[in-house]
Amino acid sequence: MARLMTNLYDVSKCTACRGCLVACKDSNQLPAVMEPFKGNYATHEDTNGNTYTLIRFIEHEDPVDGVRWNFLKYQCMHCLDAECMKVCPKKAYRKTEWGATIHDEDKCIGCQYCTYACPFGIPKYRTRTDTVTKCTLCYERVEEGLKPACVRTCPSGALTFGYRDELLQQAEARVKFLRANGFPRATIYGKLELGSGTNKIYVLTDTPDKFNLPVDPKVSANTWVWQDWIKPYAGWLIPVALGASAVSFVTNRLINKGDDHAKGGHE
Amino acid sequence: MSPAFGRGVMTNHIVDLKNTDVALIMGSNAAENHPITMKWLGEAKRVRGAKIIHVDPRYTRTSVISDLYAPMRSGTDIAFLGGMINYIIQNNLYHKEYVLAYTNASYLIADGYDFKDGLFSGYDAAKRTYDNKTWDYQYEADGTTVLKDPTLTNPRCAFQLMAKHFSRYDIDSVCKITGTPKNKYLEVLKLYTSTGAPNKCGTIMYAMGITQHTVGSQNVKSFANVQLLLGNMGRPGGGVNALRGENNVQGATDMALLFHIIPGYIDSPMNNAANKDLVSYLKAVTPGAAKLPAANMDEFRAAVAAGIPNSGYKVNTSKWVVSLLKSWWGDACTKNNDFAFHYMPKRDAAKNYSHIAMFEAMYKKEIDGLFVMGSNPVVGGPNANKEQTAMCNLKWLVSVDLWLNETAEFWTYEGWERPEKNGKVEQRNPKNIDTEVFFLPACAVYEKEGTAAQTGRWVQYRWKGAEPVGESKSDLWIVDELAKGIKKLYANSTLPQDEPLKNMTWGYGHGEEPEPIAVGLELSGFTVADKKPIASGFGSLKDDGSTACGNWVYCGQMATKPDGSLLYKPMNRDNKDNSKTGLGLYSNWGWAWPVNRRIVYNRCSVQPDGVTAWPGDDARVLIKWDATKVSDPLKPEVVGSWVGDDVCDCVKTAPPDKAVPFLMRPEGTGCFFAAKASFKEGPFPEHYEPWESPQKNLMNKQEFNPAIKVWEPEKQGKVEEYPFVGTTYRVVEHWQTGALTRNLPWLAELMPNMFVEISEELGRLRKIENGDNVIVSTTRGDIEAVACVTKRIKPYIVDGKEVHMVGALWQYGFKGYATGDPANRLTPHVGDANTMIPEYKAWLCDIRRA
Ligand code: SF4
After folding, report:
1. What is the reported pTM?
2. 3-class DSSP state of B825
3. Quick check: is A119 in a domain?
4. What is each CA distance from B782 to A178, B700, B757, in whole angstroms?
5. Phi, psi of B251 (to 5 degrees)
6. Pick among B29, B47, B54, B64 to test the A interface (most A CBs inside 10 A)
7. Can you give the CATH number for the domain in which A111 is found?
8. Which of 717-776 (B) contact A at CB < 8 A?
C-alpha cells in the first residue's frame, strides 16, 4: 500500500463557519436540501444523499467548565478496515492506494446495507440516483494533486490534508498542547478506532461522547446502528429487506417496529 | 478613536493579530463576522501562547475559541471598561514611561471643568447639549502652551481627574450593573491588564456590538483609555482594532459616505458665516487656526508655513482641501475664484443628515426621491416598520442591487404582511402606494474590478473573475452613466447655480466601461501641469492649485513605472513578509493608507529616546532613530532619520524629542482627556443606561445619554410592559441584510429561517420550548421567529434581579429562499450622540409563544 493520505480535523481550531459544507456541495455539485430550522444551528438533522458533510453543534454544561459548545465536522471516516466494503453485495466499494473509500454509483443497487453496517451511519440513500452516496475524500481532486474541497476552503486552519503518519504526529503534539492548556481530556480520534483506525484523524478537545461520536465504534456498533439508524430509516428499508434474503433479521426487526415507517429517510 | 489618537481607523491590521499576547474581543463576534481573524489569533495562541478573552452578552462561536468568556448585559460596556480603568490605576498596573511620554496624562485641565451627578460642566438641559468651553487645558500666559505636571500628582492633571472620575467604578458596582459574575470579571481584569508590562502587548478587537449604542463613541473611547494606560498603542500585537462590518466600509468612510465630512475626514462646510469663503472654512477646520488674522489665502498660507500652535499634522488641511477642489473642478478651480469653494454644497448647520434623520424627514414628506445602492433599509434600517412606511412618501426610488431585495419590493403585499394586527403600527395598502420604483441590476463583486479598502486600511485591487450576468453592470458604470447623463442635461444651462455641475471634471477612461485606474489616479493625486502621479504622498500636496488630489489619505498609492506607465500600488501582490523579526507587515501586498504605513502611531513601538526597545520587547520594534542616516540624497545636509520595517508615523527627519507619537492630534499625544468638541457628551466616558433599559442607572442620576437626540419620545418602551433586553446580531452564514446570501440555495439551507435566541430560564418563564414559534414585540412592532432555547445565554443578575435577553438575527426579510421577519421592525430610532449610529444592540421587548 502506498503512503496513506488523509484529513486532519482539529476541533479546537474550528469556528463552525461551515465553509467546508458549502465547498463540498460546490465541488460535488450537490443541490441544497432545505430543512426548517428547529432550534439547533446545524439545521440538517443528519447527512443525506445530497449532503456529504455537516457540522454538529452540541451544547454541554457542567459546574467545572461551565457552558461548552462543541463543533464536529462529520462525514465518511474512510475506515481503514471498512465495514461497508465487506457488506456490499455488489462490491460497489473500493479503497484507493492512499486510503480513500470510494463508492461506485454505477454498481450500487441502493440496498443500503452499508448504511446500517457503517459504525458511523454515513452512506445515505439518494432518490434521484437510486443509490447511496457519501464523501469521496475528493479522490479525483487529490489524484490531480489538489487538496479536498473542504480543506482548501477552511479559513481557520482546522482542516489540513497530508500523509497520515505525519498528520498523526502533528495530532499527538496538538493533543499534548491542548491537555496542558485547559483541555485535560483532549484526545485523538481515528488513530486506532475499529482496530486499524480511520483515514480521517480528529483532534478532539474532550472525550468522543461529548461530540456524539461512538467512544468505541467497534464494540458499540451493533446497538448504535440498530437504535439510531435502522429505526429512522425503516421506511425505505422495507423494499430492501424484502428483496435481500440475506437480511432476514432486518425484516424481523421491522415488523416489530412497523409504526415507525412514517419517519422514512429524508434526503 | 479620533479624539484619542487622531484617526478613526483600525490601528493595526488583521495579520498583526498574530503578534498579540492577550486579545480582548468585546462587542464583536469575530469568529462569525470576521472569520479570517481567527486564523491569526490561532497562530498567536500556538506560537506565542497568547490568550483570548471574549466579553459578550452571549456565548457565541467566538467564545468557543476563547480562553476566557465573561458575559455582560448589552449596553453596559462603559461600566465594564470603566472598572478596568479604575483597576489599572488603583493597582498601579499602567505602563508608566509610556503614559508619561506618549499621552496627555500630565496636562492640566481648565479650572471650570467639573463633573457631578452624571453631568459634565456646561450642560443645557433644555437643548440636551453641552457648551464645551470648560473642557479645555490650562495654558501659560501665551494662551497656547499647555501647563503640565510630569509628576502626575496635581489633582487637576488629566491623569488625576481620570483616576477620580473612574474611582466610582469599583468591582462590585460594575458587576451590579453589567451582571458579570464577579469571579469572571476579576479574571478578565487580571488577564488583560497583564499587558501593562512593558514586554507585553494586548489587542482590543471590537465591532458593531460597541458602536451601535447611544454611547457608541464613548465605548470606543473607553478602549482607547485602557490601551493608552497599558501602553498598547502603536505596537505590534496591540491597538484598538475596529473590525469593519463589511469589506470596504473603511473605503466608504475614507471617501466620506457620511454626512458630516468630505473625503479624507475633513468636516464638510456648512451654510453659515463661519464657512462663507475658503479662508473662513479653512480656519474652522484647521485645528488652532480659528483666531488667525489671515484675510486671504496668501496670508493663510504664510501662517501655515510659519506653523500654527496646537495644530498637529492637520496644519496641512488647506493643502488637502484645495487639492480636492482642484480634482473636482479642474480648470474652473483657480486662485481667482476662491478655488471654486462656492461650488461646494454646504450642509444646513441646523440639520442632521444621518440615516435616522433622513428617514424621519422622508416620513414627514420632506424627501422626494431616494437612491439605494448596496443597502437594504427595509431589513437593515432601525425601526424598519417606520422606514418602510416613510418610503411610501417617496415619489421615486432607485434600487441598485443584485436581486430584487426587500427595499426594491417594499410596496408589495408580501412586504406588508405582519404576524399580527397591532394598532400602534402603521399599515399601508400596496394599492395606495404611489412611489415609482426603478431597479438597476448590479453585478457581483467578482464580476467587476476596482479597489476595496479592508478593515486594516489595506487598499487591494480586485480583478474581474467572471463576466456579469445578463444586463447587470458595475457600480462604477452606473455612477459614470448617471454623472454623464446629468452633465448633459445641464450642458447648455446659463444659470450660475448649475455651474458646479457643468464645470465638474468627469472622465474616467475612453471606452464604454470606465477605468478604475483613472479613478485611482484622481484619488491618489497628480501635479496639474503634467498629470503625473504624486508618488511621494500627501507631504507634496499644495494649496495653490498646482496639485489635484481626490482624497489626501490615498495620496501616494499611484506612481510612475520606469517605462512611464502607471504603477497602481493596490495591485501589488508580493506575499513575502518584509519585516526582519517576522511581524507579518507584508508591505508589498496591496497598499495601506496612510503612505503604506501598516501600523499607525508606530513611534510608540520604541522608547521615547527613539533607539531603545521597550524592555524585553526587541522583536516588536517597528522603527528606530538613526542619527547618522541621510534619508534624502538630494538634501545631504539633513542628517538623522527614522528607519525600520514600517513607514514611520512621525516626521521622518524629526529627532526623537520632536517626533510626536500621535501627530494627527493637536496635542501630539494620545488623549485620556478628550478636550473641547471631541465628544458631544463629555471628555471622559461615563456609564448611562441604554435609552430603553430594564434597570435604573446605578452610576449617576442621568438615565440615558444626556446628549442624544430623542426622535420619538412616545416610543420609549417601559420595563413594565416590555421586560426583556433585546439585541440583534448576525451569523456567519448570512451576509448583512441577507440579500446576497438568502438568495443562494447553499447558504439559505444552512440558516433557512429567522430565529431568536433565549435562555432556558426565559424559556421556562414564558413556556417556550426549543423550536417553538414565537412573537417578539416592542413599541415599534412585532415579528415572528423560531425560538432557539440555549444554554449559551444566561440571565444576568443585575442589582440582585434577574434580567433576561432576547437575541435576534437581523438578516431576514420576505425575499429569497431563506425568509423571516426583519428584526429591525423592533429596533428604535435613536442613535449615538456623535455619529448617529443607531442603537441596534439594546432595547426592550417582550416575547411569547406564537
Ligand atoms: S471550514 Fe474549517 S473552520 Fe469552517 S466549519 Fe469547516 S472545519 Fe470548521
Report:
1. 0.93
2. helix
3. yes
4. 46, 33, 16
5. -60, -40
6. B64
7. 3.30.70.20
8. 731-733, 745-753, 755, 770-771
What's B727's domain CATH number? Answer: 2.40.40.20
Q: In terms of domains, do B718 and B844 share one?
A: yes
Number of domains in chain A: 2
User: What is the gyration radius of the CA atoms in chain A, in angstroms?
Assistant: 18
Residues B325, B372, single domain; the answer is no
Q: CA-to-CA distance for B311 and B161, rounded, in angstroms?
A: 24
Predicted pLDDT of residue A17: 95
User: Could you tell me which chain B residue has the CA closest to the CA of A178?
Assistant: B46
Contact status, residue A76 vs residue A93, Cβ threshold 8 Å: no
State the Cα angle at A28 between A25 and A34, rounded to 5°.
35
> Using one digit for the tens of pLDDT, what is the confidence trace for B41-56?
999 999 999 999 999 9
Same domain, A260 and A133: no
CA distance B617 to B740: 45
CB contact under 8 A, A18 and B746: no
Q: For the segment B295-347, what is each residue's pLDDT rounded down to a tens digit?
A: 999 999 999 999 999 899 999 999 999 999 999 999 999 999 999 999 999 99
The whole-angstrom distance between B55's CA and the closest CA on chain A is 14
Give the DSSP letter of residue B72: -
Both B359 and B471 in one domain: the answer is: yes
Using the mean position of ligand 1's atoms as its centre, give its distance from the Cα of residue A10 in Å: 9
The number of domains in chain B is 3
A78 lines ligand 1 (CB under 6 A): no
- For residue B63, list chain A residues with Cβ-Cβ distance below 8 A: 69
| A163-181 confidence digits (pLDDT tens) | 999 999 999 999 999 999 9
Q: Which residue among A26, A41, A61 sits closest to B791, beta carbon to beta carbon?
A: A61
**Chain A residue closest to B31 (CA)?**
A15
Domain that holds residue B452: 355-481
Q: Could you tell me if the CB of A153 is within 6 A of ligand 1?
A: yes
Is residue B794 domain-shared with residue B735, that is, in the same domain? yes
Query: Does the distance separating the beta carbons of A17 and B31 come in below 8 Å?
Result: yes
ipTM of the complex: 0.91
Q: Which three cell numbers stand for residue A90?
A: 455488489
Question: Does B842 lie in the same domain as B728?
Answer: yes
- The HSE-up count of residue A89 (CA atoms within 13 Å, CB side) is 11
Q: Which numbered atom of ligand 1 lies nearest the CA of A156?
A: 3
Which residues on neighbouring strands pair with residue A55, listed in sequence order?
A73
In a domain, A227, yes or no: no
CATH number at residue B390: 3.40.50.740
Say which of A17, A25, A155 has its CB closest to residue B746. Answer: A25
- The answer to whether position A228 is within a domain reads no
The closest residue, in CA terms, to atom 1 on ligand 1 is A154
Residues of the domain holding A124: 5-221
